[in-house]
Structure formats: C-alpha cells, structure tokens
From TrEMBL:
Transmembrane regions: none
Protein name per UniProt: non-specific serine/threonine protein kinase
UniProt key word Repeat: no
Protein kinase domain ranges (all copies): 18-282
CDD domains: STKc_PknB_like (cd14014)
Source organism of the structure: Streptomyces muensis
Keywords: ATP-binding, Kinase, Nucleotide-binding, Serine/threonine-protein kinase, Transferase
Gene3D superfamilies in the cross-refs: Phosphorylase Kinase, domain 1, Transferase(Phosphotransferase) domain 1
Binding site for ATP: 47
InterPro entries on file: Kinase-like_dom_sf, Prot_kinase_dom, Protein_kinase_ATP_BS, Septum_form, Ser/Thr_kinase_AS
GO MF annotation terms: ATP binding; protein serine/threonine kinase activity
C-alpha cells in the first residue's frame, strides 16, 4: 500500500461527519468521493490527498498547510456562479481532505470532447467567457488558478435542464489537488500545472500571474475547438519544450475564435491579450454585433415608468439614498438563468407554395424582418407562454408598452430547412452571455418561413424574452449609460447605478461614482407580499448573497436589495441583491 494512503472506503465516516457513498474518481495525487454530510443532510464531494511514497510523506506538514492556505483563497470565491465552491479543509487520521460542492450530472470538458467531438466555436466562446469570469474574480483577490485545462472545467445541467448549460471551474488554486488523470509537471520551486498548458514564463521560472492563467485559458480554448491541445506531443518533456520554443499548430476549426486563441497564446506575457480584451472578444462571438441599426431612443432625463409601484425599498436607519446594483450572478441559487431554454417560432402555413412570403410566416405576422435591438411584444395563442407560435409586434419605444423581449443576435443559414434545424440551438448559444446576467429570461428563435426566407435576410432572429412576464425595457448592450430602470427585470450583473431617489435608478459606468452593485438574485416565498418583501429582502439578501463572499469588507459594506411590482405580478418573487456602503457613501471602483 502506498505510504500514507488511506484505507477508507464506502460507508466510512470522515471527521465524524461525512459518510463516503462512492468513489467518483482517482488521479495522480488522490481520490474524489461522493459523501453525505450528516450534519447538513446534503451531498458534498471530498478530495482525499494521498501521499504515495516516503518523500511525499516527509512533506506532509508543509503540503497540508499549503492546502489550507489555498483553500482559504478559493473559499473567498464562494458563491461565484462559475467556481466549484470549496467549503473546508480538514485532517482525518493524518491525511488532508478537501470538502467541496458536489455538482450532480457534471462532465468535464475533456471527456465531453472525447465523447462527442469539439463544440462549435460560439459554444467554446461561451465556456471560455464563463471560465474567464471565474479567473478574473480570483485575480482580483490575488489568487491564481495555475492549472486551467479542459479536465478542470465542468459542464453541468442548469435549472432548465440544458445538460451543459452550467460552466464551472474546478480545482481552484489548490496545488495539492487530486488530478483528473493527467500528469502534472512540478519542479522543486513548486511549479504547478499540466504539461502543454503551462505558460512559457512559468516553465522558465517566472512567478504565476493573471497572464499565466490567460495563456492556459488559450490552450484550453484551442483544445475545445480543435479537439487536442496546441502543444500536444509524444511526451510531457516534449510538450513543455514546445510551449517555450514552438508556435502552436494552426487552428483549423476555430473560425471567429481563432484570433482570440492566438492572442492568448502570445509567448510574451507583456504582449498577451488582457482579461478585459478577451472578455470583449469572446462576448462578440457569443453575442455577435448586429447590423447597424438606429437603436431605440430613450429620454435619459425622463422619469422611468414604474407601473404605479416604486422600484425600491423604504428608507431604513442610516440610509441616505436608495440603492441599486451591479449584477454579479449568485450562481449558488441558480436563478440567473432560471427557466432559461430555447424555443422557436416557425409559421408553417407560409411554408407551402403560395404562402404570404412574410419573413416569418402569417402566424408571426411581421411584415418586415427583425433588426438588431428591436423590442417585441409577444401574444401567445393559448393561455401559456412559450407554447405554439406567438404573434409578434414591435415596441418602437422599447419602454412604453413594457416589451416582452428584444432581438439580441442573428444566425445565418443557407436554407430555410437549415434555419429550422440549427437556428434554435444556435440562438441559445448566441444569447447565453446576456441570459446569464439576467434573473428570469429565455432564449427564443424566430425562424424564417420557407416563403419568407429571403425576406428575412436568410437568417434566424435570436430573441431574449422574459420567462414569466415583460422585461420592461432594453437589455444588455442596448441599454444606454444614464438610462433609468423601469423594473428590476432589466438589471443584470456588472451594472453600476446612480440612485437619485427611490423611483429613479440610472445605469452608469462602473468607473464613475455609483451607489450600489448587484451581487445576485434570490427569490422569496409565494406567501410573501410585495409590502413584506420591501422590509424583509435586505435580510434575506444578507443571508443568501452575503457581500463578504464577494470580497467586500463587512465593516465597510452591507447588503441591500431591490424589489419591483413586476416580479410579484408574474409570481416569481425575484429580488435583486446588492452591496452598498454602510455610511451611504458612493463607490468609485475601489471595491473588490
């Protein structure tokens, strides 16, 4: 038996609390178990660190201490929507165990590619954008991941049932972690990583930095879209040599993702694409820029339409201003993409010869093709939304009629049949970025009819619609700085707001002074009234989406919340959870 290894097995209780149910996997440095937390009555994943030879056992104390330090860093990212949460590090019978979130139904990206082949570039970009968001959150706290690779990216079902809708970065910053079947390349200087995914400056002795993680992300995106790593060679030594001395093989399948990958694989870290540049480039692939279009005009100086109910909460003790948000999704609740799914409208009566030739058929009813940024009203044929084909109407103001959604992207096709076959899934990919930043929306594909294919510009229109009601205004990049919010439905992660009164919250640049940031979304019980919500939601948000989990000093910042009539009318009871200064002062970008 290897030195220091554990005889633990199914049925054993670790630290008097965790009942081992079955082994999920094993790697170069230990085992991963599914366990039942007997105290909290839930399932968790346990990593057992195994020392296989006397030399490793001699380093036990230092390595356990390092595991604890790294786990504390990872725990600082608890609640991030794209990070597997680390709950604790403990010792049991002299061996370290790491207690983590158990992600049911998850498959790592490497295995998924091996089974089904590389995903489309847009899907790879969506995955990359989520991983980049996780890395950036760590980098802002001074934590480097150091082992970004396909095997450490988990794809899991989201709340809508989409099998790979949730993207999670695993093994966050823990250098003594069990591996996923890949050999690590480790030197005496405690260089941690995987051959073929290490940045050149790390191989040559440089310190880990955000740029080194971005290089590994570039390798991972290359692998995702090409089906193999950019520096795959016959041996680990050859891979490491190639990272330093050779250029990656040209990418044949990357398409629009190619320039991003090449920029991330720049060997000189000073010339490598930055995180902000990568985010912008990946976002353009996930949600492509649409044709030039005179976007909806809004009167930025006007008061928003509040539907007769204030968007906000009564003033509390010490509160000098009302509060609003920068939406950073609370993934632990999985509510940011609640009900996210893909639906499409095809008017079949127009497919037959002699049909009307309207772009999307008689049932949809539009006489002109949709344009980027168009806000729409959807009238469904029955009593339930997202069943059947809706009749669409435009809301030119994108505000006055409380639009149900907005055109966010397009998918080109060679034929109407191809549009029907591929448009809905492609629209789900193209709208994934904006949907993940909102609380309660769905993807919807408006597919051209056979007779109207040319009139529709040979492309499917990708909408984002409110899952349970209107969205009350522009979404995503169609919102303008200075514009007022009409409802919490359009509030999304990374928004920063200037709050002028309880009835007037406006979108501003996060580089400017602002009053609040959103840390996520939660929902209250069906029996909670809107009036009750306005007194209870601060407390609920402090418990469910605590600012300290996002790096905010609890002695300076406190939780806040916003409610609106819309989410009570549609029965979802969504609450926007925010962070603000305790003294009511403004935030100028110095927060985590």
């Amino acid at each position: 038996m290897p030195s220091g290894s554990s005889t633990s097995g199914v049925g054993r209780v670790i630290a008097g609390r965790y009942l081992l149910l079955n082994r999920l996997g094993s790697g170069g440095m230990g085992h991963v178990w599914l366990a039942h937390d007997q105290r909290l009555a839930c399932e968790v994943a346990l990593k057992e660190i195994v020392f296989r030879d006397p030399a490793e056992a001699d380093e036990r104390e230092a390595r356990v201490a390092r595991a604890r330090a790294e786990a504390r860093h990872a725990a600082g990212l608890r609640g991030h929507p794209h990070v597997v949460t680390v709950h604790d590090v403990l010792e049991h019978e002299g061996l370290p165990w790491i207690v983590m979130e158990y992600v049911a139904g998850a498959v790592n990206l490497r295995d998924l590619i091996d089974r089904h082949g590389p995903p489309a570039p847009a899907e790879c970009a969506r995955i990359g954008l989520a991983v980049l968001d996780a890395l950036t959150a760590g980098h802002e706290r001074g934590v480097m991941h150091r082992d970004v690779k396909p095997a450490n990216i988990l794809l899991a079902p989201d709340r809508s049932g989409s099998p790979y809708g949730r993207v999670l970065l695993a093994d966050y910053g823990i250098s003594v972690q069990p591996d996923a079947g890949e050999t690590r390349y480790t030197l005496a200087s405690v260089l941690v990583g995987t051959a073929g995914y290490l940045a050149p400056e790390r191989v040559t002795g440089g310190a880990p930095s955000p740029a080194t993680d971005l290089f590994s992300l570039g390798c991972t995106l290359y692998h995702a879209v090409e089906g193999r790593g950019p520096f795959d060679r016959e041996s680990h030594l050859a891979q490491v040599t190639a990272v330093v001395m050779e250029e990656p093989r040209p990418a044949a399948r990357a398409g629009a993702l190619g320039p991003v990958v090449r920029a991330l694989l720049e060997k000189d870290p000073a010339r490598r694409m930055s995180a902000a540049e990568a985010e912008a480039a990946l976002s353009r692939i996930v949600v492509p820029e649409v044709d030039a279009y005179a976007r909806t005009r809004t009167d930025l100086g006007s008061q928003p339409h509040w539907g007769g109910a204030p968007l906000g909460l009564p003033d509390g003790p010490g509160r000098t201003r009302a509060r609003v948000l920068h939406a950073v999704l609370a993934g632990l609740l999985g509510l940011a993409v609640a009900g996210a799914g893909v639906w499409y409208a095809v008017a079949r009566e127009s497919d037959r010869p002699g049909g009307s030739g309207r772009p999307y058929g008689d049932a949809v009813g539009l006489g002109e093709p949709l344009k980027g940024g168009d806000c729409v009203l959807a009238d469904w044929p029955g009593t339930s939304a997202f069943r059947g084909t809706p009749r669409l109407r435009l809301d030119p103001s994108c505000r006055e009629q409380a639009p149900d959604g907005q055109v966010m992207a397009f998918v080109a096709a060679a034929s109407a049949a191809e549009a029907r076959r591929e448009g809905p899934a492609a629209c789900e990919e193209r709208t994934a970025g904006v949907r993940e930043r909102l609380a309660d929306v769905r993807s919807f594909a408006v597919v051209p009819s056979e007779a109207g294919f040319e009139a529709a510009g040979r492309r499917t229109a990708c909408l984002v619609l409110g899952a349970h009601g209107p969205v009350f205004g522009p979404l995503g990049e169609y919102r303008k700085a200075g514009s007022a919010f009409a409802d919490t439905a359009t509030m999304q992660r990374r928004d920063c707001l200037d709050v002028r009164s309880r009835r007037d919250a406006r979108l501003v640049s996060c580089a400017e002074r602002h009053d609040e940031q959103v840390l996520g979304f939660t929902r209250l019980g069906a029996d909670v009234t809107l009036t009750e919500a306005r007194t209870e939601s601060d407390t609920v948000c402090a418990r469910e989406v605590p600012p300290r989990d996002y790096g905010f000093d609890p002695s300076v910042y406190t939780a806040g919340s916003w409610t609106s009539e819309g989410s009570w009318k549609n029965g979802t009871h969504f609450v926007v959870c925010t962070v603000r200064r305790q003294n009511g002062g403004t935030m100028e970008g110095d927060e985590p």
